[in-house]
Write a structure and sequence with these properties.
The chain has 105 residues and is mainly alpha-helical. The protein is 72% helix and 0% strand. The longest helix is centred in the middle third of the chain and has 76 residues. It starts with 18 loop residues before the first helix and ends in an 11-residue tail after the last helix. This is CA216 protein. InterPro entries: DUF4653.
Length: 105
């Protein structure tokens, strides 16, 4: 049958009582899953930051080692230059012929 335009349509009956607790439980379960996912995402982010920090610290330590090795090589070269200079000055002061340059160790 046809309802005249002025009449409001009949309201749908509310769902039966057992549906509401099931729906509320489903919503609660979804919310718990979302919270769990957020916590896991935060844990993952913290682990990623810690891993990056550790990698950066290791990289810095490696650079420090390289700098120390380079400093040692430079100091050794400088010491050799100074030793050769002293020997040259000593030879020039005594008028003695300078020995042939020995290969550095």
């Amino acid at each position: 049958a046809w309802d005249p335009p002025g009449d409001p349509p009949e309201a749908a009956e509310p769902p039966q009582e057992p549906l509401f607790p099931a729906l509320a439980e489903a919503v609660q379960l979804l919310q718990e899953k979302e919270r769990f996912k957020e916590r896991e995402k935060e844990k993952h982010h913290v682990q990623l930051v810690m891993y990056r920090r550790l990698a950066l610290l290791r990289w810095i330590h490696g650079l420090q080692q390289k700098v120390l090795e380079q400093q040692d090589r430079l100091q050794e070269s400088f010491d050799t230059i100074l030793d050769n200079r002293k020997e040259l000055i000593r030879c020039m002061q005594h008028g003695a012929p300078c020995p042939a340059a020995a290969p550095s160790p």
